[in-house]
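Lab manual, section 2.4: Encoding a predicted structure.

Procedure: take the sequence of the chain (337 residues), apply the prediction step described in section 2.3, and record the output as structure tokens. A sample record is shown.
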Amino acid sequence: NHNLLGREGFAKNLNSLLARDGAITTSDLEELGNAEDYLRVATNVATSLEVFLAREKNLTVEQVFTFASTTMPIVAVVLTTKKPVHLYVGDQSPPFSPEQMKFIKLLGGDLTIYHSAPSAHPTGIVLTTEDNVPSDKSIIDGFVAPNILYIENTESIQPAAILVIRKRMATPMTTPMAVAKLQELAGVPVTQTEEIQESDLAELFAHLQTLSGTEVNTSVNPVICTAGLPQISSLWITLLLRGGADILMASTAYGGSSQLTDILTGSAATLNKHTFDIQGVHTDIMEKISGRLDQLEDNLMPLTVLFVEIPTNPDMKVPDTQKLAPTLRKYKERTGK
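Recorded output:
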């Protein structure tokens, strides 16, 4: 947590270093500072890549975001603008399947895909793919490349809002991805490879299953996310696609988990967030959870999810899971949820 600058501060230092004459030393790089404290928000390597991508397109680093996901650059725009988004992909294949388009609608998104050159939409947002950018950029608000969002109009696509989505539902490009892209930009051999040996992957899956205390089962391999919050996001999205859920969590739950849940429940009509309070030295967590579950019995959602942190934030209380499990079983028997 030393010398935290934010993306813009780190980019300013890096651009100043690049403008100097002479060789760049290890000490120079160490003195650049840190883009963020949490690597899932911004790493120095990914931010360095964003600086070079911005320089290449004559933009600022505020206008460039990398993602570990190929489609989240588009989803981030759809979730933050609250306007119809018109995506022009030229002769490329659609970036989303019909099932994924249904998910975007469930989140309140309005996305239309066109196989043509971009046209102006004064009341909406116009995105296009990088190879389909028109000579008159005034008609587009941004453009996308695999894993990258470039913002042309920072009033219609607000960088701060995009950053919130990226740090809650996704991550920047991972370091191996960013290094490979930097090598590609520099015109040097790419040492990072996307090829994965099936034997290495099988070994990783088996290790993760063993680590989790389950038997090795190749028919249900683990799903791996780049960080914890995207994993929670994937869970909420899965529940949304299955008809929705009531989500019960502590009112003091970790801010990232809480804000992520707020983003999705605020967009989707069939995801609802409920809270219970655990503040106070003598507060009985089990009593608080049971009381809120009783109040949720008559809710119409097909599933109730209890999200409990162990230990709790910030009180560091430890719920008794041996008492909690039978309480949840009885709730399920009574309600079928």
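Check your result against the sample. The mean pLDDT is 92.
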